[in-house]
């Protein structure tokens, strides 16, 4: 199991690229292989969810997509995924209006390489836990959080965590009103 301060080991997953809903569009493949060497010089925000075609997962993905530009302004790439394959990702995009032409990568870790490397598999259900892993530009894990399968996460809090990590300064918690906690 990897944790904060560890380097990502080698892995390979297949992703549906941003903006695609079909396996091929305008002569271009919708699929891209992603490894630990992808996106050099960028921070990576991996968010894992249990299964495609589930309501909590869809709500999170839509919200991550809404915040994509803010993540990109912080030199970070959003990568959402589960153990479902890349074809299922595209089918879900076509079936769910909020995921239509999704604006960030959706990867399938079918073999569980990354899921198992990070130690985020629910062994009873055989799926990825609802986990978030922030990796810096040097592929060092800087943040890990894991929720129960049925508890969604707050993408705005993940963005705040990324911002705090990038400052290199201590960061107090923030209240629900957006003010520093007392």
From TrEMBL:
**Active site per the UniProt annotation:** 57 (cysteine sulfenic acid (-soh) intermediate)
Q: Which domain of life is it from?
A: Bacteria
The UniProt catalytic activity note for this protein reads: a hydroperoxide + NADH + H(+) = an alcohol + NAD(+) + H2O
One GO biological-process annotation of the entry reads: response to oxidative stress
Gene Ontology cellular-component terms for this entry are:
cytosol
* Documented EC number(s): 1.11.1.26
Q: Quaternary state and partners of this protein?
A: Homodimer; disulfide-linked, upon oxidation. 5 homodimers assemble to form a ring-like decamer.
Q: What name does UniProt use for this protein? A: Alkyl hydroperoxide reductase C
């Amino acid at each position: 199991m990897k944790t904060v301060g560890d380097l990502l080991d080698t892995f390979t997953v297949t992703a549906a690229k941003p903006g695609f809903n079909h396996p091929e569009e305008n002569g271009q493949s919708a699929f891209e292989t992603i490894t630990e060497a992808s996106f050099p010089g960028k921070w990576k925000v991996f968010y894992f969810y249990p299964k495609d075609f589930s309501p909590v997962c869809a709500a999170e993905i839509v919200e991550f997509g809404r915040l994509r530009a803010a993540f990109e302004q912080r030199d970070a790439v959003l990568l959402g995924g589960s153990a479902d394959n890349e074809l299922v990702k595209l089918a879900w995009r076509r079936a769910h209006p909020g995921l239509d032409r999704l604006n960030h990568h959706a990867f399938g870790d079918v073999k569980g390489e990354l899921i198992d490397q990070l130690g985020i598999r629910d062994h009873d259900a055989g799926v990825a836990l609802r986990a978030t892993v922030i990796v810096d530009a040097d592929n060092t894990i800087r943040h890990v959080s894991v929720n129960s399968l049925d508890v969604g996460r707050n993408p705005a809090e993940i963005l705040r965590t990324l911002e705090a990590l990038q400052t290199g300064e201590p960061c107090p918690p923030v209240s629900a009103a957006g003010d520093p906690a007392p």
